[in-house]
């Protein structure tokens, strides 16, 4: 387990690339990460807010996958709609990490590598490895904490959830403070930013929320609120954090996959609580005949679901988070309909077609 780096009581200038940011200064920096075919500079846009008072250094990054832009919208709101004025410490705000994918509306880099599997990187390696190494050297190595903002992969949507290694007390502190209703416990995949940042003493968590290629209103509100909650916890902002109506920790998840090819109609939505054996989607033939109903293998919460209704056998349909608390008991309290999480759940549900369960396919 790693711990955050010790901070000096004296506030010194911050160096980022070729720029110097003085205590009490906020500056927009273009951090060079590569070049075009014609030799022009490709740079990472970064806003550095450097308080004159000592405190934690925190990075907030988005669009490490170029098509996941809900996080970009969240950082925009922090910068402009609700301008961030911290009371101590330093913020590195990076609205787009994968500028290559962002330009082409694609998840990956031009070399088809996943940037979020390329950390800590190598400055003499592939394009993805070089970008990762620069980000680690210039941003992560200077920070005490990190928040990385994500959306679902192509043709899926995610019910908002924070993912963190809860065995690390520092990442657990961030995850609980953020105030998301659902926390998924885990270290993260090999080569992911959060896993590698934690290894070098920068406890980092991620937010997974919404769809790619979209900036969704409820996700923006939830993300901005969560970041402010976290900065309040770290002493960088004053005020009272806003707590969620409920908060569930999850260690185990499972996928439900299509058994036959056809067109899906859902009976649930992202964020819904389901019980073992409950029908979640019916697969219809192309001519409209109900042919198979998928059921939940366990009590859980719909973490993610496919937004493309046309499926083949074996394709992932629904990702279910399995909490330790009883879902039937929680359902009786009607917690899922409360607060911002309930509103986001209802908003996400408007993006899919939910239907009644066909009588001929209902399980015995």
Automatic annotation (TrEMBL):
Cofactor: Zn(2+)
InterPro entries: AstE_AspA_cat (IPR055438), N-alpha-Ac-DABA-like (IPR043795), N-alpha-Ac-DABA_deacetylase (IPR053138)
Transmembrane segments: none
Keywords: Hydrolase, Metal-binding, Zinc
Succinylglutamate desuccinylase/Aspartoacylase catalytic domain span: 54-231
Molecular function via GO: hydrolase activity, acting on carbon-nitrogen (but not peptide) bonds, in linear amides; hydrolase activity, acting on ester bonds; metal ion binding
Pfam families: AstE_AspA_cat (PF24827)
PANTHER family: BLL3975 PROTEIN (PTHR37326)
Protein name per UniProt: Succinate dehydrogenase
Organism field: Cerasicoccus arenae
